[in-house]
Design a protein that fits this description.
The strands form nine sheets. The chain has a 20-stranded parallel sheet that branches. The protein has a 13-stranded parallel sheet with strand order 5-7-10-12-14-16-19-22-25-27-29-32-34. It has a seven-stranded antiparallel sheet with strand order 47-48-46-49-45-50-51, with no helix packed on it. The chain has about 900 residues and is mostly beta strands. The chain is globular, with a radius of gyration of 29 Å.
């Protein structure tokens, strides 16, 4: 299981002192039984000017000291990336003495370069940063990279960074703590790690990493909702070992949409939105890991948007990256020897989720406890596509989920402990299911055949086995045994306690007000008549940074927890947006008795408004994105138990947002003039259920445009920057496959620019696409049909001639000059690269194997030079 970061450092220091190998004291040494040095131990002594050294299988030609040899400042002054770029060459191992090293921007790692910290070493990005700090790019040539014993300091406000290593054969990242909470206000997401190993026999290692405040768990996308490890392109093996990952907003490990074998071992995950670990098929597994879901005791930033909140422990899926991808890695994902405990969450689909795009899943020697009502401990979703990604087809068989020696326990009420849908050939063997909650089914199988349940204890309050349109053989089913519970051992520092830390040592002499979270998130604000308002731990409350006091006013939120305040005088006002228990000096009181302002009151003598309406959108299943407009006075409300979320927005008389099992409500005057929604949801207008067609059916006669065509850009892998223009009526679209254009993309009149990075951007327009440029691989869909990006808008240039340099199988360098004008072009499937330049009538660049560079021009060729075997094609009037 995951070791505490400081404990590992101490172990390594002790072992280093006992050995004469002069291994850096922070080099990770895996300890199993007797302490032993890993295969990555140094084969030559380090020192200034040492001729060679091998660490973790990576050979370095020389070793230098970052301070003595390179002149870097260890006191947090200056920008070290410039010096590193100028002085570090391929084959260099850099040892960093203790200190803080300040970066001013990204550093592009050369081939065979290693950074090793000696003592307490920190790398610090610049304030406001949100990009890769150490980078290979997605298509770079750097390989055999090492980072070890170096922490990343993100404690500055609005600051994140990533380490992006995509290599052919090998990288190794070890012994690192990410300090601070990774949050940024931008729309782009800087993953903590973006990892890829291209070659099938290559290996990437991410080991002994601690990130206890990954980001903000209530934010799924953007700078506040980042991924711990994104498994990117490649066919090699990614080993993730001894991690402690908590509170990431978009998966602890997201590695299900890659051909890599992803192997997660000996790690701890807590309160990661979407899931702790997400893997796919053959060669990928989760082993000897602990998972905890306990949102009630999450003390990070709020509010939590329930629309995209679903913090499962493990997900197995094999979804394609794009509509045109036809690969399916072989079935064979496994979960083994793991302990999972779902204690509390406002929304939880399952603890272990076998998704619609998953093939087979074997779970063995694993313990799962579920205390969240209605939530299965293990769930096989029905194989097929998902509502918001209808380009994803049904994965090839097998679709089974098989449990061997699995224990399921807990107090959850309702639903089924194990729910298997459409998984022909599923099995439950030698297992034990004990659920103490009421109306709880043991194993529920729907629409699946040739299943088996054998040699299993099922001790539940409801049906032991529920077969619906299914066939299953059952044998030796018992119901009287108790089952082993998960063995969650991780109690490292910053672990949230299951019980409050205790009351104040002495009772507060004045008034004590306590707000108890009953169910769901409750946001409150109140004011008192005195100026001595303060936070307390009375009645078992916690004091959280997100609860604020400003003079005599306090504001905050509870979600199953408790907040307490002390003050003299009286409560002069109190507002709260959800159910909660409130006590004043130990006595239950209502919000109304504390001076709650009634938002429906009016001073004009008319307490009601006949033209005021309430529209409520209830999420049924899956994410449903909506947008609508009304005539006047539109505002969000908590009516009908709705939440007011940051992800939902009101702009004048137009509202947009999404629901995913949650509820959004709005008040407005007049009629609904338009309404669009991309998935099933229940719509209620003034207490009566309506359809989306009923809303805004009269339309609008103001002459507004209604674009009838669609353009969708799917990010295949890596970042793809695009820019295009249309002839008229360009707008973001939210009605194609449930996808909205992201906040990082911009529309300026009839032109748009932005990027996709594994995601999807969608636009609506009228007329024609007049130009289209994109600098990396992506799938482009126009009006529902896939098109070649190079054919959109021709070259995007009015220049009559085109020259294309096709690298073929080997890299080529070129330079040519022309009379007249030269512009970069995407003609003939070329890419537009920042490294290629056009200046004073001369174009120069490097075209990679299998790639093309194109240029449009209107003159004639003066000179042409090429180094390599590339072919050159001319087209046009030349």
């Amino acid at each position: 299981m995951a070791k505490d970061h400081d404990d590992v450092r101490e172990e390594k220091a002790d072992i280093a002192e006992e050995n004469d190998s002069l291994i850096d004291r922070r080099s990770y040494l895996k300890l199993t039984g007797a302490a032993a040095v890993t295969a990555g131990a140094a084969t030559a002594a380090a020192g200034t000017g040492a001729a060679a050294e091998t660490l973790h299988g990576i050979e370095f030609d020389r070793v230098v000291d970052a301070v003595d040899d390179l002149g870097l400042d260890p006191n947090g002054n200056g920008n070290v990336e410039g010096t590193l770029a100028n002085k570090v060459q391929s084959g260099t191992l850099v040892r960093f003495p203790e200190g803080t090293y300040q970066f001013g921007g990204s550093y592009d790692m050369p081939d065979r370069v290693g950074f090793v910290g000696e003592g307490d070493v920190k790398f610090r990005p610049p304030n406001g940063f949100n990009d890769p700090l150490l980078d290979t790019g997605l298509r770079g040539s750097s390989d055999n990279l090492l980072v070890e014993g170096i922490d990343i300091d993100l404690r500055a406000d609005n600051t994140t960074c990533s380490i992006r290593f995509v290599v052919d054969n090998r990288f190794h990242i070890e012994d690192m703590e990410i300090l601070g909470r990774g949050m940024h206000s931008g729309s782009r997401t800087a993953y903590a790690f973006l990892a890829g190993v291209r070659n099938a026999d290559g290996v990437g290692v991410i080991r002994n990493i601690t990130a206890k405040k990954g980001s903000r768990i209530g934010k799924y996308k953007g700078g506040n909702g980042r991924v711990g490890i994104w498994g990117a392109v490649g066919q090699g093996t990614l080993k993730c070992q001894n991690l402690d990952f908590r509170e990431f907003g978009n998966n602890g490990i997201y590695a299900s949409r890659t051909k890599m074998k992803v192997q997660v071992e000996d790690s701890y995950f807590k309160n990661n939105n979407v899931c702790g670990v997400r893997i796919s098929g053959d060669g990928s597994y989760v082993e000897n890991c602990e998972m905890v879901i306990d949102v009630d005791n999450y003390t990070g930033p709020r509010p939590i948007s329930t629309g995209s909140f679903n913090p499962r422990g493990i997900i197995v899926e094999q979804a394609k990256m794009s509509q045109t991808s036809d690969w399916r890695i072989p079935a064979g994902a496994e979960v083994r020897d793991c302990d999972l405990w779902a204690k509390s969450s406002p929304l939880l689909q399952s603890v272990i989720e076998h998704g619609p795009q998953g093939r087979s899943l074997l779970i063995k020697n694993t313990r799962v406890r579920c205390d969240v009502d209605g939530t299965p401990a293990i769930r096989r979703d029905r194989p097929g596509n998902i509502p918001w990604r209808k380009d994803q087809d049904t994965p090839p068989e097998p679709h089974w989920t098989r449990m061997e020696n699995v224990q399921v326990t807990g107090n959850a009420n309702g639903g089924a402990a194990v729910q298997l849908m459409g998984g022909d050939g599923s099995e439950v063997r030698n297992s034990c299911i004990q659920q103490k909650g009421s109306n709880r089914t043991g194993v529920q199988i729907l629409d699946a055949n040739n299943c088996e349940i054998a040699d299993t204890n099922i001790n539940v309050s409801g049906q032991a086995v529920d077969l619906q349109s299914s066939s299953a053989d059952t044998s030796n089913i018992t119901n009287g045994d108790s089952c082993p519970v998960p063995n969650i051992e991780n109690t490292t520092s910053d672990e949230y306690e299951d019980t409050p830390s205790g009351d104040d040592s002495e009772p507060f002499p004045g008034n004590v007000l306590t707000v108890y979270g009953d169910s769901g998130e409750a946001n409150y604000e109140f004011a008192v008549s005195s100026d001595d308002l303060q936070k307390l731990t009375a009645n078992g409350a916690t004091t959280d940074d997100d609860d604020l006091i400003d003079g005599s006013t306090a504001s905050g939120s509870v979600w199953g927890g408790k907040d307490s305040y002390g003050f003299e005088g009286d409560v002069s006002s109190f507002t709260i947006d959800n159910d909660a228990t409130i006590t004043l000096n130990g006595e239950n009181v209502s919000a109304d008795s504390l001076g709650t302002e009634d938002d429906s009151s009016s001073d004009d003598g008319d307490s009601t408004n006949a033209d005021q309406h309430t529209l409520t959108i209830v999420g049924d299943a899956g994410e449903a994105n909506y947008e609508f407009s009304v005539e006047s006075n539109l505002e969000q409300t908590t009516a009908n138990n709705a939440t007011v979320d940051d992800s939902d927005a009101v702009d004048g008389t137009t509202a947009s947002g999404y629901v995913w099992g949650g509820i959004d409500s709005y008040q407005f005057e007049g009629g609904v003039t338009s309404f669009t929604i991309d998935n099933d949801a229940t719509l209620v207008l003034d207490g009566k259920e309506v359809t989306s067609d009923d809303l805004g059916s009269s339309g609008s006669d103001d002459g507004a445009s209604n674009p009838e065509r669609s353009l969708i850009i799917y990010g295949d892998s890596g970042k793809a920057n695009y820019e295009f223009s249309v002839s008229s009526d360009l707008t973001p679209s939210d009605d194609q496959w449930g996808i909205n254009s992201s906040g990082g993309d911009q529309i300026d009149g009839s032109s748009a620019r932005g990027y996709v990075w594994g995601g999807i951007d969608s636009f609506a327009f009228s007329g024609d696409i007049t130009s289209f440029d994109i600098d990396s691989d992506a799938t482009v869909i126009v009006d529902g049909e896939e098109v070649d990006p190079a054919e959109l808008g021709a070259t995007g240039s009015s220049l009559p001639n085109t020259i294309t340099v096709d690298a073929g199988d080997a890299e080529a360098t070129y330079q040519f000059s022309m009379t007249g004008t030269i512009e970069k072009s995407t003609a003939n499937g070329a890419t537009i690269d920042d490294g290629d330049t056009v200046e004073s009538g001369t174009a120069s660049g490097i075209v990679e194997p299998g790639k093309k560079d194109s240029y449009a021009f209107d003159g004639s060729v003066k000179t042409f030079y090429i180094d390599g075997n590339a072919s050159v094609d001319f087209e046009g009037e030349q």
